[in-house]
Automatic annotation (TrEMBL):
<feature type="domain" description="AB hydrolase-1">
    <location>
        <begin position="19"/>
        <end position="255"/>
    </location>
</feature>
<dbReference type="InterPro" id="IPR000073">
    <property type="entry name" value="AB_hydrolase_1"/>
</dbReference>
<keyword id="KW-0378">Hydrolase</keyword>
<dbReference type="InterPro" id="IPR029058">
    <property type="entry name" value="AB_hydrolase_fold"/>
</dbReference>
<dbReference type="GO" id="GO:0016787">
    <property type="term" value="F:hydrolase activity"/>
</dbReference>
<protein>
    <submittedName>
        <fullName>Alpha/beta hydrolase fold</fullName>
    </submittedName>
</protein>
<comment type="similarity">
    <text>Belongs to the AB hydrolase superfamily.</text>
</comment>
<dbReference type="Pfam" id="PF12697">
    <property type="entry name" value="Abhydrolase_6"/>
</dbReference>
Length: 280
């Protein structure tokens, strides 16, 4: 099956440089709808649905093949090659950010910049590392999902969104979770929340923007600081937004940060923060 069919790829925009948008767990390409209008005139936007969500084709799915995040990253690279993209910008949210890291490590010369929204290489606390959760908490969450997926979605969507004053956003996220293929989502959640990609971070050589939120249970500020220290070519910016989905809850601020970063020279600079402030 063609990768673009399997992953329901859509290409939009008037620009020349490709920008590949990689969504997070349980979501689909529709989560980018608030920021894509601000990018259409400048970039060629490539939207994908990971297998198991949106309008992706699940007929080729098997748990043996998709037993690690590397398999989902391989899907992205296959789309990349099928479209013959060059010098693409990779934008990933949450676990989608991890997929972007894996893609860029495997084929660094094919990508220019990476923009990682609320990334986390490991969700489980380990010694001095604070990922946000004890392993028992993650196992309990996965058990809840296994027993009652829709109940899990109802309980955790507000927790993940982290914007109690915007119930419509919580409802949108819950609906996205519930539209996903539940069997695939359960397996994808397990490999997402039990994986540890901390050793991979130092292998990333592409210029990278890390966007974290002021308050985020699933990617606490300490995780952002850890990633920033581990990736020598990274810049870290803390948004004023709260929760784990700033592209939905604070799209203007998120878009401003992305645009300011991409307007900087490809060499590292010291005035990135000031450029962000000017873009707001």
């Amino acid at each position: 099956m063609d990768a673009c069919i399997r992953n329901n790829v859509k290409v939009i925009g008037k620009g020349e440089q490709p920008m590949v948008l990689v969504h997070g767990f349980g979501c689909d390409q529709s989560v980018w709808r608030y920021i894509t209008p601000g990018l259409l005139d400048t970039y060629k936007i490539v939207l994908i649905d990971q297998v198991g969500v949106g309008d992706s084709d699940c007929s080729g799915y098997n748990s043996g093949k998709y037993a690690s995040l590397e398999a989902y990253a391989a899907d992205i690279l296959e789309v990349y090659h099928e479209l013959n993209l060059q010098d693409a910008i990779l934008v990933g949210h949450s676990v989608g950010a991890t997929l972007c890291i894996l893609c860029a490590i495997q084929e660094p010369d094919r990508f220019s910049e990476l923009i990682l929204l609320v990334p986390s290489p490991c969700y489980i606390n380990d010694g001095d590392y604070y990922g946000g959760f004890e392993r028992a908490d993650v196992e309990a969450m996965l058990a809840t999902m296994q027993a009652d997926y829709e109940g899990w979605a109802t309980t955790y969507a507000p927790f993940i969104m982290g914007n109690p004053d915007c119930p419509s956003l919580e409802q949108d996220l819950e609906e996205l979770f519930c539209r996903a293929n539940q069997d695939i989502a359960k397996e994808f959640a397990r490999i997402t929340f039990l994986s540890d990609y901390r050793p991979m971070l130092s292998k990333l050589t592409n210029k990278t923007l890390l966007l974290q939120c002021t308050e985020d249970t699933f990617a606490p500020p300490r995780v952002g600081a850890f990633i920033h220290e581990a990736i020598p070519t990274s810049m870290l910016l803390t948004l004023g937004a709260t929760g784990h989905c700033p592209h939905l809850s604070a799209p203007i601020e998120t878009l401003s940060a992305i645009s300011a970063f991409l307007q900087q020279p490809r060499t590292m600079t010291d005035n990135f923060s000031s450029a962000i402030n000017q873009a707001k």
